[in-house]
Specification:
With 225 residues, the protein is an alpha/beta fold. It has a single domain (3-211), classed as Uracil-DNA Glycosylase, subunit E (3-Layer(aba) Sandwich), CATH 3.40.470.10. The chain has helices at 10-25, 37-41, 78-91, 102-105, 123-134, 139-151, 164-167, 200-210; strands at residues 28-29, 49-53, 109-113, 118-119, 158-162, 179-183. The protein has a four-stranded parallel beta sheet. A two-stranded antiparallel ribbon has the order 1-4. The longest helix has 16 residues, at 10-25. GO terms for molecular function: uracil DNA N-glycosylase activity. Excises uracil residues from the DNA which can arise as a result of misincorporation of dUMP residues by DNA polymerase or due to deamination of cytosine. One of its GO terms (biological process) is base-excision repair, AP site formation via deaminated base removal. One of its GO terms (cellular component) is cytoplasm.
């Protein structure tokens, strides 16, 4: 992914300093070694689906750099339980016993959050800190650049946008080449407003096959140990 020009911009160095300061003063997730895990699992040339969320899980042990995913052995968060429920309703895939989505990432599904780090805390804490401390610090600028780089790919990419933060990126996507699936966030606070029944997995595969691309084996996560 050609993002090197971003690393030379003023906002990038300011963002890195901000995150480093946050890590010194507070607990921040995911760990520094996993902040860019989404790009390590899903190289630019392999990306065929983007699932865009909001920010990482705010509790220790949950976030490991892939949006909505948690390591094997960690209790499955409510949003991910809803994702599993929709996957079963959409494709008949039984919910796996864990929440690790690396198998999707390794097939070309970029699991990206609009912010790559978050301060630890409760949801209420996170919302306040994100609004007043994290928002506007640079992550959104970076993830917008990621979306624009993917939008420039000549091959079709399916963008799955979950939640308002993700939905705002739709205007950056050329739908004459790519395809967009938009729905509310899978959080228990919003899933009932249209996430359930949105069939994002079968629709994404239909868009891929329409372009002559290999569909995603969404059930592959069950094999992850």
């Amino acid at each position: 992914m050609e993002l090197r020009p971003e690393f030379e911009k003023n906002y990038w160095s300011e963002l890195l300093h901000f995150v480093a300061d946050e890590r010194r003063e507070h607990e921040v997730f995911p760990p520094a070694s996993q902040t860019f895990a989404a790009f390590e699992h899903t190289p630019f040339d392999d990306v065929k689906v983007v699932i865009l969320g909001q920010d990482p899980y705010p509790n220790r042990g949950q976030g490991h750099g892939l949006a909505f995913s948690v390591p094997v052995g960690v209790p499955i968060p409510p949003s991910l339980r809803n994702i599993h429920a929709e996957l079963e309703a959409d494709c008949g895939v039984a919910p796996p016993p864990h929440g690790n989505l690396e198998a999707w990432a390794d097939q070309g599904v970029l699991l990206l959050n609009t912010s790559l780090t978050v301060r630890a805390g409760t949801k209420a804490d996170r919302d306040v800190h994100r609004r007043w401390r994290w928002q506007g610090q640079g992550w959104e600028t970076f993830t917008d650049a990621v979306i624009e780089a993917l939008n420039a790919k000549p091959a079709r990419v399916v963008f799955v946008l979950w939640g308002k933060d993700a939905e705002r990126r739709e205007r950056r996507i050329d739908t004459s080449v790519h395809r967009v699936i938009v729905s509310p966030h899978p959080s228990p606070f919003s899933a009932y407003r249209g996430f359930f029944g949105s069939k994002p997995f079968s629709r994404a595969n239909a868009f891929l096959e329409e372009a002559g691309l290999e569909p995603v084996n969404w059930g592959g996560v069950a094999d992850r140990r």
